[in-house]
């Protein structure tokens, strides 16, 4: 199951709608081993395409170095489909290379850049096998600074 | 001569779970051959046969001191002692 806070969920949907009709992509990083998607990083789709996405190689390196320094890993890797359902394509399956990540797919085919519901689904992709999982949207956690001890 | 090579999660099955290993080589292609000696099977995940011989796989990124090797000679990129090599699979799809 993917457990994701409402704020991050909304931000992923907003990114997908904004970039429609091109595919949007990004990562939500979290502490290593925590399975908590906490820090969303929008990436630029260097392919700038409605049918393909690819994170720019130097931007990707910067992201991984940053995650390493923070002791984080990619908990969620998301991208949008703009004309088809929110299910991993053959290319998505072939190129999936983070066996521990939740692969989130958002489809903007219904409403494009406009308001309206989107399909938001999550999968594990391991050794070419796709397993859909439940998505639980939870309230945003209280910021550390105001949490009582 | 020792060059640190950072290994991505998906290839750590070849390195006994290690996140970084050391290898030798004056070029990226020599370095990959040396990696293969100690971690059999890893080379096939990094390079593929092409019309011109052997090439880096399209969706594998390799960096030498933060530079994408595609801009500094690909498999012929020069490497020297103390350099840091990072391997990252592309984040891409359709």
Notes on the protein architecture:
The complex is a heterodimer of chains A (149) and B (94). By secondary structure, chain A is of the alpha/beta class. Chain A has a single domain (2-140), classed as Cytidine Deaminase, domain 2 (3-Layer(aba) Sandwich), CATH 3.40.140.10. Chain A is 22% helix and 34% strand. Chain A has a 6-stranded mixed beta sheet. In chain A, β2 and β3 form a beta hairpin. Chain B has 94 residues and is an alpha+beta fold. Chain B has one domain: Ubiquitin-like (UB roll). Chain B has 2 helices and 8 strands, in the order ββααββββββ. In chain B, β3 (47-50) and β4 (53-56) form a beta hairpin. Chain B is globular, with a radius of gyration of 12 Å. Chain B starts with a strand and ends with a strand. Classes of the chains: A alpha/beta (149), B alpha+beta (94). β4 of chain A pairs antiparallel with β8 (92-93) of chain B.
CATH fold descriptor of chain A: Cytidine Deaminase, domain 2
Q: Count of DSSP helices of chain B?
A: 2
Structural class of chain B: alpha+beta
- How much of the sequence lies in strands of chain A comes to 25-35%
**Would you report the number of β strands of chain A?**
9
Using the coordinates shown, work out and report the CATH topology of chain B.
Ubiquitin-like (UB roll)
Average residue pLDDT of chain A: 94
CATH architecture group name of chain B: Roll
The name of the CATH superfamily of chain B reads: Beta-grasp domain
Average pLDDT figure of chain B:
96
What share of residues of chain A is helical?
10-25%
Our measurement of the CA-to-CA distance between the termini of chain B, rounded to an integer number of angstroms, reads 41 Å
The oligomeric state is heterodimer
Bulk shape of chain B: globular
Supply the number of structural domains of chain B.
Answer: 1
Unreliable residue stretches of chain B: none
Residues in helices of chain B, as a percent range: 10-25%
The H/E string of chain A reads: EHEEEHEHEEEE
**Corresponding CATH superfamily of chain A:** Cytidine Deaminase, domain 2
Largest sheet of chain A: 6 strands, mixed
């Amino acid at each position: 199951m993917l457990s994701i806070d409402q704020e991050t969920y909304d931000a992923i949907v907003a990114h997908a709608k904004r970039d429609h009709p091109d595919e949007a992509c990004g990562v939500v990083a979290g502490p290593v081993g925590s399975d908590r998607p906490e820090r969303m990083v929008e990436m630029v789709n260097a392919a700038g395409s409605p049918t393909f996405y690819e994170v720019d190689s130097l931007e990707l390196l910067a992201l991984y170095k940053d995650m390493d320094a923070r002791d984080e890993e990619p908990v969620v890797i998301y991208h949008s489909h703009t004309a088809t359902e929110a299910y991993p394509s053959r290319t998505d399956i072939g190129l999936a290379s983070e066996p521990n990540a939740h692969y989130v797919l958002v489809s903007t085919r219904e409403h494009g850049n406009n308001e309206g519901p989107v399909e938001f689904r999550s999968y594990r992709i391991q050794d070419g096998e796709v397993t859909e999982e439940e998505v639980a949207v939870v309230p945003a956690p209280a910021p550390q600074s105001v949490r009582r001890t | 001569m020792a060059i640190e090579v950072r290994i991505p999660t998906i290839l750590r099955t070849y390195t006994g779970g290690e996140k970084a290993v050391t290898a030798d080589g004056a070029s990226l292609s020599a370095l990959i051959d040396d990696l293969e000696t100690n971690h059999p099977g890893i080379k096939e995940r990094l390079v593929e046969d092409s019309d011109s011989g052997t090439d880096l796989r399209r969706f594998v990124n390799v960096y030498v001191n933060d530079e994408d090797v595609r801009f500094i000679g690909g498999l012929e990129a020069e490497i020297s002692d103390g350099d840091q090599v990072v391997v990252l699979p592309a984040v891409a799809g359709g």
